[in-house]
Amino acid sequence: MSGVDNLPALDQADAQTFREAMSRLGAAVHIVTTDGKAGKAGFTATAVASVSDTPSTLLVCLNRKSQITPLMQENCSFCVNTLAASEEPIADVFAGRTGVFMAERFKAGEWDTIKTGSPALKSAIAVFDCRVLEAKEVGSHYVYFGTVVAVRLGPAAKALVYHDRAYKHV
Ligand SMILES: Cc1cc2nc3c(=O)[nH]c(=O)nc-3n(C[C@H](O)[C@H](O)[C@H](O)COP(=O)(O)O)c2cc1C
Question: Which atom of ligand 1 is nearest to the CA of 47?
């Protein structure tokens, strides 16, 4: 495939309209955690996607301005915890909506670890424990590609989904 450098320049869609359009896409809500030399932290994320199943790989997008970014860079591992419908309060804590930061956020929920040492939420409907394969800077965010080194299946409960700027149960 030839690079975008060979194509004529086009104006970008404006950010506000882009965000409005994205609000119409329903997306599962996850808590992405990390722990290691740089310390423990976690954030609420919907920008999580499957990339490959052989080997099992997913991606997570994190705002470059987040205080969690330097920790993700240094710890080189993360864990994606997919929330059940009942876990809206945990989503709010890890989105910074309750004014609680960094390791203090883990007082919400019950946590253990699987392989990488990044916190795994015991009540999550699915947990993906990942080693960072590559971190790529794209605009305002870092895209972290993670090799999934362990998966844990939780209870088959309803999922928490964010759609039209509100939590929904699916
Ligand atoms: C439903 C929801 C989804 C979010 N998804 C993302 C995401 O995918 N990536 C991201 O960087 N921030 C996302 N955020 C914002 C972060 O959770 C929030 O900015 C982060 O916890 C701030 O971290 P900090 O205050 O510790 O820097 C989301 C917030 C909410 C409420």
Answer: 8
Three-state SS for 117? coil
pLDDT for 106-142, tens place per residue? 999 999 999 999 999 999 999 999 999 999 999 999 9
pTM over 0.90: yes
Has residue 4 been placed in a domain? no
Q: What is the CATH number of the domain that holds 85?
A: 2.30.110.10
Closest CA to 33 of 134, 150, 120, 127: 120
Q: Which two tokens stand for residue 116?
A: 């990488």
Question: How far apart are the CA of 43 and the centre of ligand 1, in A?
Answer: 6
In angstroms, what is the C-alpha Rg of the chain?
Answer: 16
By most ligand atoms within 8 Å of CB, the mutation choice from 22, 23, 25, 43 for ligand 1 is 43
**What is the count of structural domains for the chain?**
1
Interval between CA 168 and ligand 1 midpoint (Å): 17
pLDDT tens for 62-86 read 999 999 999 999 999 999 999 999 9
Alpha carbon of 7 to ligand 1 centroid (Å): 33
